[in-house]
Amino acid sequence: MNLSRRMFLHSGLMTGAALAVAPKVMAEPTLPGWHVGYANAPAEGFAPAPMKLVRGRVPAGLTGTLYRNGPAWFRHGDQYATHWFDGDGMVQRIAIGDGKAVHSGRFADTKKRRLEMQAGKFLAPGFGTKGDPSFPVGSSDDVNPGNISVMMSGGELLALWEGGSAYRMDPVSLETKGFKVWREDLKGMPFLAHPKREPDGRVWSLATSGSRVGIYNINPDGSTKDFGMVDIGARHYIHDWTMTERKLIILCQPWIQTKNIPPFIDGFVWKPEEGMKFLIIDKDDLKKTRWAQGPARSFYHTGAAWEESDGTIRLDAAFYPEPILGSGGGADEIRGKYAGDQATSKLTMAVIPVSGDVKMIETSIAGDFPQVDPRRHGLSRKLTAMVSGSDPGQPGGNSLAVQDWSTGKSQVFDFGDGYMVEENLFVPKGTGAAETDCWLIGTAINSKLGRSEVHVFDAGHVSDGPVAVWQAGYAWPLGFHGTWA
Ligand SMILES: [Fe+2]
Description:
Elements: H1 5-9, H2 17-21, E1 46-56, E2 64-71, E3 75-76, E4 79-80, E5 89-97, E6 100-107, H3 111-119, E7 149-153, E8 156-160, E9 167-169, E10 176-179, E11 196-197, E12 203-209, E13 212-218, E14 224-231, E15 242-243, E16 247-252, E17 255-257, E18 268-270, E19 276-282, E20 285-294, E21 298-307, E22 313-320, H4 331-334, E23 346-352, E24 359-362, E25 367-371, E26 383-388, E27 399-404, E28 409-414, E29 419-428, E30 438-446, E31 451-458, E32 468-471, E33 481-484
Antiparallel strand pairs: 1-6, 1-32, 2-5, 2-33, 3-4, 5-6, 7-8, 8-9, 9-10, 11-12, 12-13, 13-14, 15-16, 16-19, 17-18, 19-20, 21-22, 22-23, 23-24, 25-26, 26-27, 27-28, 29-30, 30-31, 31-32
The structure holds fe (ii) ion (FE2).
């Protein structure tokens, strides 16, 4: 399928016919059905195509757009990507309104992707890719695949990576419009893929740069209020972090960069004897900091945090006993092989007292991609949703779990075999709605049918199953994170 750029840009007018001509992820008959999650998406992207409601009813009042980002290019001819995290970023857009869900998707237009598509091979070094010495690397943005997450800021859609700038994209056509420059002197400064939004719309994010970490404070209109730096003492691997109403919390896991070599992650050493250190920073004065010591854990994702009246901080995260997806992460899956689960994480509440060591309270929920009600980032709350479970025959989670911290109980919905479930986001049903009165919306791949689906749950009744399921006529690759706008 070869769609022209003009057709893509104007294809908002396309209707039912789009399903019949929708480009498919390159599934190969010799590969298992789940491999569509790790296969190349069409180079020209996915033209807008309506999804079919296959279960339940359209939730009244659910109007908006789910954007998601993730790697979607893993193979040039016989050459495979050597790490899942290094595939070119593609933003998926699912517009929901008037009882319809319409999917489209488009690759971030990056220097890396342009040069590699011209050459017909992978060239750029990356998180887990050594790269070809011929590839010109002047700055980290030269290798930036823009493939981890998305955020809306000041009316712009931003595609986020962790080691470089954000890419500005048109929120409707998904056309890439160049790098986001937050402030002239911050040009090229990395912007982490896990920004946190205050209830008033202000955004905090980090810039990782060795043992120094930059801190962005962004106004609700997308302008930059402030930027400062803190020292974390060593080159810890930082993918995510968290905050309370008054504090920023950087979790310094003992996965520490000791060498600057390609691929990036091969320069890191796991030093469990150092434990996990938590740097707590005053939002109003970045010089006011304190450290807390916890046991060794590795992690990619936090849920969120809050501070109690006595100063105790509680934060939840998907903690692993040791790093996963380091060197070679996902390389087997990209080739259609699956050897079973790696180390299992646990949804864990870390309790940081005003003085003394951090205590870990583990739940029985194994999985990742924790999410909370976006109105309660930094505030006390009850619920955390997380992808959990597994089908022994294929990678990824196949359940959605919701932990209620106020009761210690959880609800789980098992999608059954043949599903790969992705991150689910809380969407409040209205202003002032309780946490339990939210929808949870997320995507999943139905690997038996080779189709991607959008599932909507009632956050208070997850174990009852989805209230609505839309199905595409094809699958798009597994992604990492999304946002609801
Ligand atoms: Fe992430």
